[in-house]
Amino acid sequence: RRLVVLVSGSGTNLQALLDEIERVGAETYGARIVAVGADRDGIEGLARAERAGLPTFVCRVKDYAAREEWDAALAEAVAAHEPDLVVSAGFMKIVGKEFLARFGGRFVNTHPALLPSFPGAHGVRDALAYGAKVTGCTVHFVDDGVDTGPIIAQGVVEIRDEDDESALHERIKDVERRLLVEVVGRLARNGHRIEGRKVVIP
Ligand code: GRF
């Protein structure tokens, strides 16, 4: 299977996928990353892709007259690599109709909270501020909402009294990286179908 990964930041989730595919081999894992895309330049996630010798592309919203044009351009850039599965690993933009028309149902996102709790761009901070005792991460298919698509897997992380946002986010990312690697591998090897809000991986 062919994976395109979208990033916006440090790319440690991308790195976890790269390392696992390197460790077990693309045949055994069931997939290889064919390209990495981002919504901005100069991020560590793109540097990681370049170090791995992967093609990269950047689609910046400000380079387009309208959001819809950015969305169509992003879809084109992804489609050029003929992915079977697209993975958002810390990609911080909401995709639109065009992108979902082409990749909906095979576009996976990872979110650093236990959806439906704490969706959006500050899930770690929101769980901490709320005084939750546990939080975690969610791997889900992207639908036309924000972090509302069918859930594939979740991992629980305790919140400690001494936690600040970055300490908690690092602990979440340890679980998140393992969960994403495991889920993407299963999807790649076994395929999947979505029945309403249920994801079935045979
Ligand atoms: C991840 O926790 C992701 O869920 C969130 O931002 C973080 C990205 O981390 N949206 P990285 O860029 O993969 O290191």
TrEMBL record:
Entry annotated with the keyword Mitochondrion: no
Gene3D superfamilies per the UniProt record, alphabetical: Formyl transferase, N-terminal domain
Record-listed N(1)-(5-phospho-beta-D-ribosyl)glycinamide binding positions: G11, T12, N13
Coiled-coil segments: none
Domain (Formyl transferase N-terminal): residue spans on this chain: 2-184
Pathway membership: Purine metabolism; IMP biosynthesis via de novo pathway; N(2)-formyl-N(1)-(5-phospho-D-ribosyl)glycinamide from N(1)-(5-phospho-D-ribosyl)glycinamide (10-formyl THF route): step 1/1
Biological processes per GO annotation: 'de novo' IMP biosynthetic process
Catalysed conversion reaction: N(1)-(5-phospho-beta-D-ribosyl)glycinamide + (6R)-10-formyltetrahydrofolate = N(2)-formyl-N(1)-(5-phospho-beta-D-ribosyl)glycinamide + (6S)-5,6,7,8-tetrahydrofolate + H(+)
Binding-site positions, (6R)-10-formyltetrahydrofolate: R67, M92, K93, I94, V95, N109
Family of this protein: Belongs to the GART family.
Entries under PANTHER family matching the protein: PHOSPHORIBOSYLGLYCINAMIDE FORMYLTRANSFERASE
Function text: Catalyzes the transfer of a formyl group from 10-formyltetrahydrofolate to 5-phospho-ribosyl-glycinamide (GAR), producing 5-phospho-ribosyl-N-formylglycinamide (FGAR) and tetrahydrofolate.
Protein name per Swiss-Prot or TrEMBL: Phosphoribosylglycinamide formyltransferase
